[in-house]
Amino acid sequence: MSLIITDECINCDVCEPECPNHAISQGAEIYEINPDLCTECVGHFDEPQCQQVCPVDCIPHDPNNVESKEQLHAKYVKISAAA
Which residue range is the domain that position 73 belongs to? Predict the structure, then answer.
């Protein structure tokens, strides 16, 4: 499943540069994660990098975008091929 940034986000700017898929961008009020680009860092790292650097722990799994590790890897392959 992809990740989501909650309202607890303090706009500290540390998550965006850590995302290898460029899935994180500044939204109207807080950072947002594009579920079409989020692979939870599958294909790049063992753990989602945004979660690792977030100082307020506001990046949980998105229950509206449930995906298996296999689906996340397939998305990674598709994104990598398009790059």
Answer: 16-82
